[in-house]
Model the fold of this input.
Amino acid sequence: MKQATLFGTIRLGVRSLMLHKLRSILTTLGVLFGVSSVIAMLAIGEGASEEAQQQIRKLGSRNVILRSVKPAEDLVRGAETSRISSYGLTDFDFQRVAETFPGVLRTVPVRQLQQEVRLNERALNPRVLGTVPEYVDVTGRPLSEGRFISVEDQLGFTNVCVLGYEVARFLSPFESSIGKRIKIGADYFTCVGVLLPRVPLGSDQPQPGADVTGEVFLPLETARRWFGDIQVKIRSGSREMEEVQLHEIIAEADSDESVPPIAAAAREMLARQHNQQDYEVVVPLEQLLRAQAVKRIFTIVLSSIAAISLLVGGIGIMNVMLATVTERTREIGIRRALGAKKRHIVTQFLVETVVLSIGGGLLGIALGLLIPIGIEYWAGMPTIVTPTAPILAFLISAGIGIVFGLYPAWRAANMDPVEALRHE
Amino acid sequence: MTTGSGSPAANAVAELRDITRVYRMGAHEVRALDGFSFTFQKGEYWSIMGSSGSGKSTLLNLLGCIDRATSGSYRVRGEEVEGLDDDQLSDLRSREIGFVFQSYNLIPQLDVLENILVPLFYQDDPPDDGEERARILAERVGLGSRLGHKPMELSGGQQQRVAIARALVNDPAIVLADEATGNLDSKTALEILALFDELHAEGKTILLVTHEPKVGERAERTLLLRDGKIDTVSENRQGLAAIGTVR
Done:
């Protein structure tokens, strides 16, 4: 027997809605666009933050980077009496980090030199870095060909170098640079390997002019032996000499949890050992966390915009349902006269509203899954649709149906049957 | 003044005792029914007449349990209506009342069979044979071949037949017909009245509210209202005669 079952009520509700197809479709559109924009916004937000996080992860999220920074001119120690400005990280700092910091897995020192790099008549001024074999592992830079500096190079003070991709391409565009004798400063070094390009932040393509900012790696001790600790910079007619022992110390933590204490210890140690601000501590993990916080704000803002469009859709539904209730006052009167209880009327109209909003929600999910694909295709922006987004959107659309359907349904149910029957 | 056919109380389907219904219209009160008492017996066929403002619509609404008296007692098949809450009143309607309206009042999105089934749809404990019952009733009112049609596809007379079948599907204590022939042409109106005669002959209790004397005369007896009170109670020869002449 057909009773006022939920299934029966839903079927009847759908049929009532089908009496006014255009109106029902237009009403559905409000929720459709609301839901699809929620999904699309979340996908864009998720995609953008994921991209940023990946870039930061490439820097090594477990690394703590200590860097030498040239202090302001008048603060440089002995600037008046000597023309050599001495600042920055020291070998002692390196030893402290490597030997006494708990949670530090590997420590990599880096010296940076200002030297011309030349192969035959091709020359450029890249960053020449003296470092140790662990550098590639700790920074996660893959090799394109050959090998990186080895322990033997380090111990034997061999004259070898490893070129960055851009430098290798510039010096020897048509053949492999391996085995070539590269002139760095006044001396020759044998090229043993080439690194893959470092992906610049924000794009997958090396930026124009990236050649001149490339890198050349030498064994740290070789670099020390040949070039010393004092750097001569020739700048707009004046000579300037700097003494910097180490330009960078990269400390790799054994886990993400060890990163903040290492960073804190490094800051504390440097503050104690250095009487001027000639250093900085860069923590990619902190940047990652900051990026996540930014992502959260980004997502909240985007979702709020989407939520507003959902709200507008909900108000549209409520508006139409109020009109429907007025229009069907007589039907309500008839049903009440024939024995419908208030809850039957509430259910009837609520079901119609929920059918509208869920219908719009389902179509909105379909559209919402297509929009990110389109954005990725046309705008090249990365998007990520998390499985929770469609589920969330569906629940929201059902919720909207209930919230915005309750008042019209309540109004319908509380009509006086006698008055309702008299309604023309 | 209490009148009736004089049958035992067990046969009473609708007993009204001292019913008063007062409408407030701003500052002054209108007594639509004023100390009205009457008992309708099972199987009776009454027409309720009176000029507009006599209280017949109010009486109909009270009998149909869609309105409540200001004071007094009303029993349907012995069940006291006063004091029931909205849900109980609704349930009572779905079990004991059959409505036939002037403008048919079918639900446009439902077909003939579904329209007939609506009162059962709202019952707390609907009978198992409801659909079978509805088919028989549709056959009975001559629409057995139109079960799948929507109201829009039927003529006025056919719609009213569906409405009558709907009013009977719950086997109600009383069938209330409110100007049931008011929207029909005279030929169709006669057909509908003939159907009421048949139903009366089958033992249904029918109360026909009308302002048309010619329609009112078709009933067995007529209750004439004036100013919320019973003016006259009369028996109609024509109505009684009609029972014998139909088909």
Observations:
- Chain A touches chain B at residues 1-4, 8, 12, 15-16, 18-19, 330-331, 334-344, 417-418, 421 (CB under 8 Å).
- The first helix of chain A runs from residue 6 to 18.
